[in-house]
Amino acid sequence: MFLKKNNKRIKFKTGFTLMELLIYMAVLSIMSVVVSDSFLTLNKGRDNIEIKSELNSNLSFVLEKVKYDISVAEGLNFPAVAGESAAALDLSIGGENIYYSLDQGRLVRQAGVGSPEFISPENLNISNLSFTRLENINPFLGSKKVSLEINISGAYNSGDPGRQYEQSRKAMVNLNADF
Fold it and tell me: Which of 18, 58, 66, 102 has the most beta carbons within 10 angstroms of its beta carbon?
């Protein structure tokens, strides 16, 4: 753009100076670092939520499978005495023994002489499993009710120390059969 001043033409400069470009680049790089850091933090938080959710889901599945077998059991072979706790469980269902135990951090269910099957997935490491037999005897009616308390602790299998999470669960199940 040109202006006339006293019959002289003055030319205005357009564009940016080197200093303005350097300031712009510095501000832009700071903003990109802040945005990328926020993105990484959100992504890590999402991963932790997914791990906790998966662990919770896996523990729930394992507990529901064991609780179902206990609820339909006709007999409880082990633990055999009231107040006794054990890391294994032996039930009678339909004339067949069902045996639960831990094998290298995974819950195993074996029906009779059949081959054992893993109930818990590979990414769930069960660190604690206990079954406690509880009995309620009614001398007036001459009946005895048996319940089992299940305690289970599991952790997510991960080589990354930032992705470690452990959870414990407890459940009480009544056996439907009278003893």
Answer: 66
